[in-house]
Amino acid sequence: MATLTDPIADFLTRLKNSVRARKETFDAPHSRIKVDIARILKEEGFIWNYEVTTVDGFTRLVVTNRFEGKTAALTDLRRVSKPGRRRYVGSQDVPKVIKGFGIAILSTPKGILSGAKARRANVGGEYLAEVW
Description:
By secondary structure, this protein is an alpha+beta fold. The chain has a single domain, classed as Dna Ligase, domain 1. Helices cover 25% and strands 36% of the residues. The strands form three sheets. Strands 6, 7, 8, 9 and 10 form a five-stranded antiparallel sheet that branches. Strand 4 and strand 5 form a beta hairpin. The longest helix is centred in the N-terminal third of the chain and has 14 residues. The radius of gyration is 15 Å and the shape is globular.
């Protein structure tokens, strides 16, 4: 198995691939930041649920995708800040994704927040991803 240099991008890619393949669930290796991203996606209505399970001694994050009929709630996503090129935004510069139809995910001093919550809390941070 290959060593991952960007586990967040791996999680987001698994999410995007499972939605495009119309899979009901997918799993990924567990980490606290992935659970926080899944929490935001659930709060914003892009996934139905997530849970942390242990399989053969390894902790996994299992995510249930959200579909309305044959249409997925998640259209696409993009990793913005990468290990080779970090991107930070100030509290006044938090972007609106697709004119407010999508969400920005930021890592802030107050934890992992959506763009709207970061603007309300008046904090900036690392611009992890955008989802629409």
